[in-house]
Amino acid sequence: MGILDKIKRKHSTGHHAAKLKTNAATLQNAEVLAMMSERSQMNDLIHELKHINRSLEKSSKVFKDAIERLNQGDNSSETIRILEHTNKSILALAQISDCRMEYYEYMINPIPSLSFQPQTVSIYREFEKIYKSLNDGWCDQKRYYNLKGESRSRFSTLRIVSIGIFILLENAAKYTLPDEEITIEFDEQKDSLTVKISNWGPLVTKEELAYICQRGFRGEEARKKEINRGDGIGLGVAKDIFEQCNVEFSVDSDDKNLRKVDDINYGKFCATLKFSPIKLQTSDNHPRRYRVSRP
User: Fold this and answer.
1) Each residue of 67-97: pLDDT tens digit?
2) What are phi and psi of 150, to 5 degrees?
3) Mind listing the pLDDT tens digit for each residue in 4-30?
4) The pairing of beta strand 144-148 with beta strand 181-188
5) Which long-range contacts (CB under 8 A, 24 or more apart) does 60-64 make?
6) Beta strands, E only, 10-143
7) Please, which residues have CB within 8 angstroms of residue 52's CB and are 6 or more apart in sequence?
């Protein structure tokens, strides 16, 4: 073998080794990123399940108290109503919990699951079910939910849409001013349904609005609020879910008309969902109109 051939062979061997080394580093980086992503998904799951479990605990206590009253001879219509209502809330929260875990499974191992099979859903009833679940299970205080309009339509989507709705309503309940209602407005058109969730929450400036759905981000005023539940990941998870479900999702805030309570500036915050296309129900079996739900 000549000197030139030896030089070429050495160069080729060195280049091949460098290429293998680069590929190994790339693979290692990909594995690290995958591990970080999985850990991030796990953190999201734990964050949401903590809220759901807290609501389940509270609902279970309400149910137990009603059973004790029933055993003591109180079989009034109010006691029966509480039992029926709380039972439905517990079942709804359990379904949401299952849904959330299936979403996590999908994110780390994208295989078909029940939560990712298309289903026809009554969006109005999903909102009604979830806000009642939260009101029975919310530990601090119950909230006023003002439902405006109605909807007789159904929307073909994924079951995990319930998790996104749960996050929006739970987030509104967490930050809304005491004694202020949370408005859920339904605007149903021929081929679409728009739902707006509005509440008075810690001010989100127009500059902060661009980052509000980013992981770990909380606005300046929200950070002032003494609340130990909130890591700034809820809206990010909700946004991901609505993208999976083909639901248009947007947020807006009013930074002009403000209130100041306990040194915190509050403004109107609005999350908007648009479901399209929708299918109108033809039967009379449609949701009732609930104007205001008060404790």
Assistant:
1) 999 899 998 988 888 888 788 778 877 877 7
2) -155, 170
3) 555 455 555 555 555 555 555 554 555
4) parallel
5) 60/90, 62/86, 62/136, 63/87, 63/90
6) 118-121
7) 93, 96, 97, 100, 166
pLDDT in tens, 176-212: 887 888 999 999 998 999 999 999 999 999 899 988 8
Of 233, 274, 245, 277, nearest to 115 (Cα)?
A: 245
Give yes or no for a contact between 90 and 60, defined as CB atoms under 8 angstroms apart: yes
Q: Number of helices (H) and strands (E), helices first, in the chain?
A: 7, 10
CA 167 to chain centre: 3
Pairing mode, strands 279-280 and 259-261:
unpaired
Quote the CA–CA distance of 257 and 110 in Å, as a whole number. 45
**Rg, C-alpha atoms of the chain:** 25
DSSP H/E element including 65: helix 3-71
Look at the block and give the residue holding tokens 């296309």.
277
Encoding tokens for residue 129? 């079910």
Tokens linked to 76: 């009034």
Q: In the numeric block, which tokens belong to residue 28?
A: 């290692």
Angle between helices 234-244 and 3-71 (to 10 degrees): 100
CB 242 within 8 A of CB 164: yes
β-pairing, 248-253 vs 193-202, is: unpaired
Distance of alpha carbon 220 from alpha carbon 116, whole angstroms = 36
| H or E element that contains 267 | strand 264-275
195-223: burial string, b at 16+ Cβ within 10 Å, e else: bbbbbbbbbbeeebbeebbeeebbbebbe
pTM of the model: 0.67
Q: Which one-letter DSSP state was computed for residue 71?
A: H
Dist CA 135 CA 150 (whole Å): 20
Query: How far is residue 138's CA from residue 56's CA, in Å, rounded to a whole number?
Result: 9
